[in-house]
Design a protein that fits this description.
The protein is an alpha/beta fold and 331 residues long. Helices cover 37% and strands 16% of the residues.
């Protein structure tokens, strides 16, 4: 988003709760980074945590409001539905507030009810990353904009060479955190049913607190499956696989990994809920949708799409950025 804003017209400031891993990239894009301690909301929080959150919340809002005044900010942007500070700081300083809605809220009905209320009353504009995300919110000033990443160029063949996979092997890939709702267990059930003469590669790291689930996935006696962990060069991974699978059992808000695969020229097999229908429906060249949490349906999709051989031409084009227009309008 920041990279899309003309530096001659926009001055960007990013407020984060701790030292950000992307600090160098943010600063290279022209943003100044400010650290203000903020507690995150979590479904596993204890009553003591929520009490501490409530006590610290007004102090955090005041500190962000002070930054808004000092820096003479024109528009405030919150980058997540689950960030409950920006709306209050914007209201306190009487600045227009843009809210990015990136989550499908299934963990807590109470959180969704509160966030629907806040978005309705404290956002001048809300930008949702998919129809499924927008449908959670009150109808009105919700725009849908499916963001797309910028991928570095990749040398085809480098991933296969590194992992000793021949060029003529059908290679099916999946990527994501090894979390319970990402559907990797369903994918491992479907893989032998598909009976594809190829290999399945799963990229992604463990989730804190769910290491036993990740260990159970890796220890399953499924042939021609390899787990490669977190990858530094995902573009080479996408360039070398023949089919990308996103088997999530709960709805993905959008599925950026799916878009990354399509931008790399790799077709996608995804479950039919959340954001993927926005990208795949009406575009058979991009891939197909299958019923969630259904190993037989996933196996059939794998058999069907793995037979195709594609040229590595991009299957998805990033839409023009809307952010400059949104911020100009509100400023």
């Amino acid at each position: 988003m920041i990279s899309s804003l003309p530096t001659s017209e926009f001055e960007c400031h990013v407020v984060v709760p701790d030292q950000p891993p992307l600090r160098a990239q943010l600063e290279a894009a022209g943003a100044r980074v400010h650290i203000v301690p903020m507690r995150r909301i979590t479904g596993s929080a204890t009553p003591v945590y929520w009490l501490a959150y409530a006590l610290a919340w007004p102090v955090t809002v005041w500190r962000i409001a002070a930054l808004i005044r000092t820096l003479r900010i024109d528009v405030v942007h919150s980058n997540s539905l689950h960030s409950w500070y920006g709306w209050a700081a914007a209201a306190l300083t009487r600045k227009p507030h843009v809210w990015s809605a990136r989550e499908i809220v299934v963990q807590s009905g109470a959180a969704l009810t509160l966030e629907r209320f806040l978005v309705k009353h404290f956002a001048a504009t809300t930008v949702a990353i998919s129809t499924a995300v927008a449908n959670q919110l009150e109808p009105g000033s919700v725009r849908i904009y499916s963001e797309a990443p910028t991928l570095p160029s990749a040398q085809k063949g480098s991933f296969r060479t590194k992992h000793g996979i021949s060029d003529d092997t059908i290679l099916v890939g999946a990527a994501g955190r090894l979390d319970t709702w990402k559907g990797f267990d369903v994918l491992l059930d479907a893989w032998p049913l598909a009976a594809i003469d190829g290999e399945l590669v799963i990229a992604g790291g463990e989730v804190e607190g769910k290491e036993r689930y990740a260990d159970a996935l890796r220890s399953r006696p499924t042939t021609r499956v390899r787990f490669v962990g977190e990858l530094d060069d995902m573009s080479s991974f996408y360039a070398d696989i023949d089919l990308f699978v996103m088997p999530s059992t709960l709805p993905e808000p959008l599925g950026l990994v799916m878009i990354e695969a399509l931008m790399s020229g790799t077709p996608v097999l995804a479950t039919d809920h959340g954001g993927p229908p926005d990208i795949l429906t009406g575009h058979p060249e991009r891939g197909e949708l299958v019923k969630p949490n259904d190993a037989d349906a996933l196996a059939e999709g794998l058999r069907k799409l793995a037979r195709r051989r594609y040229e590595k031409a991009p299957l998805y084009e990033a839409p023009p950025s809307i952010w400059a227009a949104v911020f100009r309008e509100l400023a």
